[in-house]
Design a protein that fits this description.
This protein has about 270 residues and is mostly helical. Helix content is about 65%, strand content about 5%.
Length: about 270
């Protein structure tokens, strides 16, 4: 399950989505997340899902690879679904002792689960089609206007990109530690909740040690390459807005208008 996490990974390709400016993809992802919380009915979610799958088709990233990332967060989605199912008051559909399912609860639970699935897939598409270096440059360019008020845009962009970049690395390291502990007879599945929590200690300790080692190696590598911050640094490949970015911007505006209009659909 750990190796199924796709957030932070890059899927090589030369599609129209891959060639878009990183800033365009970052803004599009943020707008898409906001629009998911604007949607309030079935037709809105259907339009949002159709638009997302159209982008995935253009990006040529395999659907199997994208959906594989959902298995790692399935428990979170299921917990959110159950929580909304039993915690919302309204017209009662089923009742047993202290458990009650309402029409409003089913409605909210379903929409919340779909919202989380689309949010995770949409965020994954951005990282899968954007190289880490381009993502750093795009974040830095977007945050650069805030540097006038003292915000360290380059450092923030670098920190966020490193965090995304090392998610797959840490997950892979965790998977190796679990397999090594299981080969030594460790049991992570039996026992009550407290016993399972205690069984995680043999995983967490070496994982923290490995994380500090990776961080130290990264710091040494940056020092060896004379990294001294973002001031005065140049880039081999400057990111630029192209015709495809203009087309994507127009499509984003149209999509936003359609999503807002979908709120008033009562069919």
């Amino acid at each position: 399950m750990i190796r199924d996490i796709t957030l932070g990974q890059y899927y090589p390709g030369d599609s129209a989505v891959h060639r878009l400016d990183a800033r365009t993809k970052i803004i599009a992802t943020l707008l898409y997340i906001i629009e998911l919380f604007v949607v309030n009915n079935f037709w809105g979610f259907l339009i949002a899902a159709a638009a997302l799958f159209a982008v995935i088709a253009v990006s040529r990233v395999p659907l199997k690879f994208i959906f594989r990332g959902l298995t790692a967060v399935f428990l979170i989605i299921a917990f959110t679904f159950v929580l909304n199912l039993f915690m919302v008051e309204g017209r009662v559909l089923w009742h047993w002792k202290f458990l009650t399912i309402t029409y409003e609860g089913v409605h909210r639970a379903f929409f919340m689960a779909v919202r989380l699935v689309l949010l995770i897939i949409g965020s994954s598409v951005m990282t899968l089609t954007t190289k880490p270096v381009e993502l750093t440059d795009g974040l830095e360019k977007l945050l650069k206007p805030f540097s006038k008020i003292g915000l360290p845009s380059h450092e923030i962009a670098l920190m966020m990109t490193i965090a995304l970049r090392f998610i797959p690395t840490l997950m892979e390291e965790t998977d190796k530690i679990i397999k090594a502990q299981q080969a030594r007879g460790a049991d992570f599945e039996s026992g009550n909740l407290l016993q399972r929590a205690k069984s995680l200690i043999p995983i967490l300790v070496p994982l923290f040690v490995s994380s500090f080692r990776i961080a130290q190696d990264l710091a040494l590598a940056m020092e060896a390459r004379c990294y001294r911050g973002g001031g005065g640094r140049t880039r081999m490949n400057e990111i630029k807005f192209r015709r495809g970015d203009a087309v994507a911007a127009v499509l984003m505006v149209l999509f936003l208008a359609v999503i807002i209009a979908s709120r008033f659909i009562t069919l």
